[in-house]
Request: fold
Amino acid sequence: MKGGGSSSSSYGSLPPAKRRWRGLVVGVLGLVLLSMLVPLVFLLGLHNGFHSTPAYPTEQRTSDSIDLKVYDRHSRGKSGNQSKGDQSTAHVDDLIRRLEPTLPKDFKKEPVKAAVNNTIGSTVSSDAPKPRHRENRTRTGRIVEVAEHMTTRAGGKVEVAEHMTTRTSGMVEVAEHMKSVTDEIEKSCEVKFGSYCLWRQEHREKMKDDTVKKMKDQLFVARAYYPSIAKLPAHEKLSREMKQNIQEFERLLSETTTDADLPRQIEDKLQKMETVIAQAKSFVVDCNNVDKKLRQLVDLTEDEANFHMKQSAFLYQLSAQTMPKSLHCLSMRLTLEYFRSPPPDMEPSVADKYNNPALHHYVIFSNNVLASSAVINSTVMHSKESGNQVFHVLTDQQNYFAMKLWFYENTYKDATIHVLNVEDFNLSDMEATALHMSSAEEFRISFPSTDTLSTTHIRTEYISIFSHLHYLLPKIFGNFKKVVVLDDDVVVQRDLSALWSLDIEGKVIGATQFCAVRLGQLRNFLGDNISNTNSCAWMSGLNVVDLVRWRELDVTETFWKLVQKQPNAGEELFQAAALRASLFAFQGLVHALDDTWVLSGLGHDYSLDTESIQKAAVLHYNGNMKPWIEMGIPKYKGYWRTFVNRENHFLSDCNVNP
Reply:
C-alpha cells in the first residue's frame, strides 16, 4: 500500500510541467501504435470486412470483368484449406504475383487519397489529438503511397480487363459488319449486276470432266519431279513406279478426253499417282532441276495452246465458209432424185410470167436450197398479193437440178419460181473467171477508231456488197426496168410491194446505208480516190435496182475497169479488188433506204434488241454465223427457222435440223 501510495503520491506530487510532458509521451506512443496498425489493416485486407465505404471504389466498377472472376475462383479454391490468417497472406501474395508487371499509372488517384486520408483521420481523432510532428506526417505519407501503389496496380488490371472486353465487343461489331457487307453484296448482285449474277449462283454446276483435268494436273507435277527422282540411286523403286504411272496416264489421256470413257479403276490410279507424288515431294531434290522441268512443260503447254488456237480459228472459218454436210447431202439427194424421175416441163402460162415486166420480179443469187427457200417463203407469207410475184433463183451447174426439183415439189402460194443456171449464159473470160456462187461478197473489216474517251482501239465490222455475178443483172434481165435483189441470208417480215413504187431519185440502186463504216475510215484500203470521205458504206441484203439507169451509166463496165486496175494474183486479192470496185462504182449512185427496211448484224451481233428486230421489214443475217449452221446465234435462229418446212422427207433423210 505504501508502495502504491507513494507512487501515486509521487506522481501527483510531480510538478505540472513534468505531468504535461508525460501526457505528451503517452499520446505520441499511442499515435505510433496506431500508425503501425493502419498499414497492417490494409496489407492484411481486414478493411474488407467492414461495412463502411470501400477504400477502392474501382472494385465495384470491375467486379463483373473476366479477369476478376478468374481471380475469385482461385481465392475460393484456397479458402477451404487455409486458416483465416493464411488466407489473408495468400490473398496479398497472389495479388502481388498476378500484378507483377508494372502497369501504366494512369488510374485516377484523388479519390483514393481522399478515402485513405479520411480513414486515417477518423481513426486518429477517435483516440488521440491530431498529430503535428514531422515524423507522424512522414509515416502517414508512406501509408498513402502504399495505398496509391496498390490501387494503381489494381487499376491497371481493371483496365486490362476493360480492354479485353472492348476487344470482344469490337469483334462482335466486326462480325456484324461482315454480315452487313455480305447482305450488301447480295443486294448489289441483284441490283447492279442484273440477273446473270444471281443465275450463276443458283445454277452453279460441278466442273465437267473434272477427273480428266485432275489427271492432267497430276501428270504435269509428276513429269516435273521425275528427272530429279531418277537421279537418286537409292530410290530406284520410286523412280520406276513414277515412270510407270506417267506412262499409264499418258496412255489414258491419249485415248479419252471425257470422264465417261475412263476405266472403272481410275480412282485407284489417281490415288496411286497421288501417293507417288507425295513421296517424291518428301525427298530433298535439286530445286533447279524441278524449275527447269516446269519451265519446259510451260513452254510446251504454250506451244500446244497456240496450236489449238490456230486450229480453232481455222476450223471456225472452215465451218463458216463451207456448206454443212447435211445441206450438201440435201443437194445431192435432190439431184439424184431429179435424174431418177425428172419433173415435167413447165406450163406455158407459167413460163410467160418469167419475162412479163408488169410483174414484181425478185432476184436471188444462191447455191443453198434451204436458204433460198426460206427467203421466198417469208416473202410470200407476208405478201398481200402473191400472184404477181416472180422469183428468179440464179445458181450454178452443181446445184441447178436440186433447185429445180425442190421448187417443183414445194409451192409458195401463187408465186412463180424460176430457176436459172448462170453458166448457160454467154460469159466473157473475165466473167467466167469470177464465176463462183454466193449471195453477196462479205468482208470483215478492222480499222482504228477513236471513242469519246480518246482511246484508240480496233473496230471490226461486217460489210456485204454485190458479188461479181450481180453485175450481170442488166445482161440477164434485158427486158426489165426494175428488180429487187434479195440475199439468201435474209428473212422478210413485211409486205415488200411498196418498193415497186419507190422513187430512188435518179440513182442506180436503193440500199441501206451502213454509217458505222465511212469511206474516210477506209482510206488506207481504198486509197485517195474517195470523193466524199464522210459518205457511208452501203449494204446488200435488200436492194432496189433501176436497170434502165444502170445501163445508161454503164456501171458494169466501170466496175470491171476498176477491178482490172487492181493486182489480180490470187482469189483473196481478187475479192479485195471487188470491194474497192463496188464502193467506187456506186459513188453518188446509191439512194438511202429508210432504216426500218433492213436490220443487219444477225449473223455476228449478239446485242440486237427484240424491239428493233420486230420493227424491221427485213432481217439480214450478215456475218459468219448464218442461221442454217450449228454455230448460228441461237436467239436469232427462230426468226429464220419459222419459214423452213422441216417436215420434208429429204430433210429427214439428210438429218437436216436447223
